[in-house]
């Protein structure tokens, strides 16, 4: 399970660093790549900084998933919010124009499950006499 957790953490970090780079350095590409309109460039820039911070959370958890196990809550929350917010907008009648919004949601749900599974206490080593 450690390998799956590490792969999931690396994927989460890559997702967030990719979005951070778009927000910080390539805002015109956000709408065509992610289907998200940029209405306020300053707010998008701030969001890019936040995505960069969350990327470091993933990288720290990836460094030692057992030691930094509690950071997995933040990783799970990050992906859960990425699922919940589009669902809320769709519930209000704003259906996305393409698959780019809803397509990754099942994959993100799998990431959430892996992070939450990683929160379990590791098995203790057997005692020797």
List the defining traits of the structure above.
129 residues; mainly alpha; globular; 6 helices; 70% helix
Helix content class = 55-70%
Structural classification: mainly alpha
> How much of the polypeptide forms β-strand, as a percent range?
under 5%
How would you spell out the order of helices and strands? Answer: HHHHHH
How many helices in DSSP terms?
Answer: 6
Radius of gyration: 17 Å
Largest sheet: none
Number of domains: 1
Distance between the termini: 28 Å
Taken from the alpha-carbon principal axes, the silhouette is globular
Extended strand count = 0
| Uncertain parts | none
What average pLDDT do the residues reach?
Answer: 91
Element layout with pairings:
Elements: H1 2-25, H2 30-34, H3 41-63, H4 72-91, H5 99-102, H6 105-118
What does this structure look like?
With 129 residues, this protein is mainly alpha-helical. It has one domain. 70% of the residues lie in helices and 0% in strands. It has 6 helices and no strands. The protein has helices at residues 2-25, 30-34, 41-63, 72-91, 99-102, 105-118. Helix 1 (2-25) packs across helix 6 (105-118), helix 3 (41-63) packs antiparallel against helix 4 and helix 4 packs antiparallel against helix 6. The radius of gyration is 17 Å and the shape is globular. The two termini are 28 Å apart.
């Amino acid at each position: 399970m450690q390998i799956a957790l590490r792969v999931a953490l690396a994927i989460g970090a890559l997702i967030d660093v990719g979005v951070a780079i778009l927000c910080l350095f390539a805002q015109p590409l956000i709408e065509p790549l992610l289907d998200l309109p940029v209405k306020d460039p300053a707010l998008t820039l701030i969001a890019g900084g936040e995505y960069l911070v969350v990327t470091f959370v993933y990288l720290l958890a990836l460094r030692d998933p057992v030691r930094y196990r509690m950071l997995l809550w933040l990783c799970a929350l990050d992906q859960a919010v990425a699922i919940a917010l589009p669902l809320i907008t769709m519930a209000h009648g704003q259906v996305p124009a393409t698959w780019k919004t809803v397509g990754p949601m099942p994959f993100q749900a799998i990431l959430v499950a892996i992070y939450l599974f990683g929160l379990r206490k590791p098995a203790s080593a057997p005692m020797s006499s």
